[in-house]
Design brief:
The protein is mostly helical. It has 18 helices and 2 strands. The longest helix has 28 residues, at 311-338.
Length: 418
């Protein structure tokens, strides 16, 4: 057994390694969605002429673990935040931080994506301004082929993470007395100290397999399971030392299982006859092994080498949500403009990558400098202080907050009820 790394986890300090991983996941998401323009067998809102099946193998390298890792980080963050604020303040803060960007995204950021999709399918023959005028006509027959989302034909698209994170946050708040109970915490301490490598790797896989077979292809059930894992891992110093200690083993399993996924995908899952056989569904276990081992490996390496502050990290940590909110709209608009030009399989994706990154960068630089835009993209809504001694917010801030809560109430009720 290898010696413990020198880097130790301080449960009271900010976890810069988790911030780096969060930035990594959202950064990968931009390239992943660009890749969706070019993969041959995976559906997307719009497609290039230059489709590639081998690209699917490359994207499978991150497909299994990118969202589970983000959910684990989200669970850890929720636990940390709940230790610092009351339940009411937690709900209010989460609602402003998540639902305000979600509502703005649904009404402003997402519609161009639907316009590109429908135009690409030949279902629209009008300008964007004409489309946007009928976009809010919930009974317009133009949208009959599009399933209801938050409203008829109006959905969250890539912003589903904000929707689910808000919902998961409320559920976690409700069950937090159980998660924080002495029994559960004692069980986690035993788990960290007594189970070793096999316990840390194999025991969490049991509920993951149960969820996979009870709720097949249900990303919400799987996502919430990983979020709970993150909450339970929390700031358990012993458990984090175990994750760091066995990081090389986890990485080895992740690499081996990824190779197995490639064989399963191209030989079995892409063959309708083999995919229909009874044993083919059990190959999904390989993806679960790959997912959990990759998550643990990334957590272990990040905790060992990336848990330190950085000016770049501070910048990108604030930029994450604005980039996330606008990136897919830039991707689809650029593709809609460039794909008909048939610029070739090299120049076209390079221009889309460059244009998307430039669009995100310029958007963020504008957003962070304009007070009214900041909360619409998940940035902190700074409250002016009327009294520096008491720290009380001004009446203006109170009014803005009240208006925001009233505006978000219908969306919140919609998400809770349905």
């Amino acid at each position: 057994m290898s010696a413990l790394p020198d880097v130790q986890i301080n449960p009271l300090a900010r976890r810069h390694d988790l911030d780096w991983l969060r930035v990594l996941v959202f950064g990968l998401l931009i390239f992943y969605h660009i890749g969706m323009l070019y993969v041959a067998n995976w559906g997307f809102h719009y497609k290039s002429h230059y489709l590639s099946q081998p690209l699917e193998g490359l994207m499978l390298a991150v497909n299994q673990w990118r969202m589970p890792l983000l959910w684990v980080i989200s669970g850890i963050s929720i636990r940390f935040v709940l230790q610092k604020m009351s339940a009411i303040r937690f709900v209010k803060a989460r609602t402003l931080r998540l639902l305000l960007p979600l509502l703005f995204g649904i009404l402003v950021v997402v519609p161009p994506q639907l316009f590109v999709e429908m135009s690409g399918k030949g279902e629209l023959h009008m300008s964007y301004w004409q489309f946007y005028q009928i976009f809010f006509d919930l009974d317009n027959p133009v949208f009959d082929n599009y399933k209801p989302g938050v409203l008829p034909h109006i959905d969250v698209n890539h912003l589903w993470y904000l929707r689910e994170l808000w919902t998961f946050s409320l559920i976690t708040l409700c069950i937090s007395p159980l998660l924080n109970s002495r029994i559960v915490q004692s069980a986690m301490d035993w788990f960290a100290c007594k189970t070793g490598f096999f316990g840390l790797f194999l025991l969490p896989i049991i509920p993951l397999i149960a969820v996979e077979f009870a709720f097949p292809d249900n990303r919400n059930a799987s996502g919430f399971t990983f979020l709970l894992f993150g909450y339970l891992i929390g700031w358990n110093a012993t458990l984090w030392e175990q994750i760091k200690r066995f990081r090389l083993r986890f990485l080895s399993i992740a690499v081996i299982s990824y190779i197995a996924i490639l064989f399963a995908y191209f030989i079995v899952w892409m063959n309708p006859e083999l995919k229909a056989l009874w044993w083919a569904k059990w190959l999904a276990l390989i993806a679960i092994f790959n997912c959990w081992s990759a998550v643990l490996a990334l957590l272990g390496y990040a905790a060992t080498y990336l848990n330190k502050p950085s000016a770049k990290l501070s910048y990108f940590n604030d930029a994450v949500l604005p980039y996330y909110i606008v990136h897919q709209t830039f991707i689809l608009i650029l593709a809609f403009v460039l794909v008909p030009l048939q610029l070739g399989p090299v120049l076209e994706p390079l221009l889309i990558v460059a244009g998307t990154i430039a669009g995100c960068l310029l958007s963020y630089e504008v957003i962070r400098r304009i007070t009214v835009l900041r909360p619409l993209f998940g940035l902190k809504w700074q409250a002016e202080k009327s009294d520096q001694a008491s720290g009380a917010p001004t009446m203006s801030y109170r009014i803005r907050s009240a208006v925001a809560y009233v505006t978000l109430l219908p969306l919140a009720l919609k998400l809770i009820i349905f």
